[in-house]
Amino acid sequence: MKARVTVTLKTGILDPQGKAIEGALKSLGVDGVASVRQGKVFDIELAGADKAKAEAALQDAADKLLANTVIENYRVELL
Amino acid sequence: MKAAILVFPGINRERDMARALKLISGHEPVMVWHAETSLPAGTDLVVVPGGFSYGDYLRCGAIAARAPVMDAVRDYAAKGGLVLGVCNGFQILCESGLLPGILMRNAGLKFICKDVHLRVERSDTPFTRGYNAGQVIRVPVAHGEGNYAADAETVKRLEGEGRVLYRYCSADGSIDDISNINGAAQSIAGIVNDKGNVLGMMPHPENHVEDIMGCTDGRGLFAGLVQHLDMAA
Q1: Angle CA(B175)–CA(B178)–CA(B183) in degrees, nearest 5?
Q2: Per-residue DSSP letters for B42-82?
Q3: Which position among B14, B60, B87, B117 bears the catalytic label?
Q4: What does A36-58 look like in DSSP terms, one character per residue?
Q5: Active site residue B228
Q6: CB-based burial of residue B61 (10 Å sphere; 0-12 exposed, 13-18 middle, 19+ buried)?
Q7: Can you tell me the ipTM of this complex?
Q8: Which residues fall within 8 angstroms of residue B73, CB to CB, at 6 or more apart?
Q9: Is B14 exposed, middle or buried (0-12, 13-18, 19+ CB in 10 A)?
């Protein structure tokens, strides 16, 4: 089973990397970019087949390590 | 002073720290590998040194914070043992939950490597005993993610409880935006936990302890710890 955990910065948290990318896109002449926020994607391959278990394990992984919930939100998806 | 210095893969400031501790306390510290599950008996001080543990992957300090040795450090800290985290060590202490908040990327985007001034906010703690309250010291920083952040309530609590021990300041001790090199909340450079036995700070006091380094302002921190332990003994 494949899963994806997406980690994004919470609204209002300063994202200098996103800002730098935003500036670079503008200087490349990419039109219509209002703002950029950068995040992280974790593609995870799971050995079991139990969806509920997998979801719980991924929540646990995100809470413990993948995201720092002081500044980040995360989303767990089973693909 | 029997100090234990934690060693994680990728870390590179542990020998600077060992040198400073030996110089000031007269005792050779013990290096403790990250996979250990206990600390040496009779440890007086645990140091989490700086320097890119695990390549700073994921978030600086996040992977190190989950290393087996950190459970032993948590137990040790819960019993009141002294813990000092410097730079990446501060990040590890925050990620491990021993200190509140997180270190974010420097507001100016750049990695900063230079001497800064710090104002010592109080002198009645084990980590500041070697200084006077309000004293300005000069120590180096070298970090890309040193911008201390926490929710407003946490920052207010840190301030109210006098838990900000070191703050970025100008040479004359004033707190302003220019001397706040990385954009940290309230110009925070170093904080302690609620019990006052765990300090995390971004600057490197261990790199200003000998004349050959051009400055010895960092000595006070270590000398104060030695003094504190002597008094407790």
Answers
A1: 85
A2: T--EEEE--S-GGGG-SSTTTTGGGSTHHHHHHHHHHTT-E
A3: B87
A4: ----EEEEEE-S---HHHHHHHH
A5: no
A6: buried
A7: 0.85
A8: B6, B39, B46, B48, B83, B96, B98
A9: buried
Residue position matching structure tokens 């019993």: B79
Contacts of A75 (CB under 8 A, 6+ apart): A5, A6, A8
Please name the residue that has the structure tokens 């990040």.
B91
10-residue mean pLDDT profile of chain B (233 residues): values are 97 97 97 98 97 94 97 98 98 98 92 98 97 98 96 96 98 97 98 98 98 98 97 85
Q: pTM for the complete prediction?
A: 0.94
Tell if the CB–CB gap between A68 and B109 is shorter than 8 Å: no
In tens, the pLDDT along A25-78 reads 999 999 999 999 999 999 999 998 899 999 999 999 999 999 999 999 999 999
List all residues 6 or more positions away from B196 whose beta carbon is below 8 Å from its beta carbon. Answer: B125, B126, B163
Of the candidates B34, B117, B143, B204, the residue annotated as catalytic is B204
DSSP helix/strand/coil, B160? helix
Q: Answer whether B104 sits within 8 Å of A68, measured CB to CB.
A: no
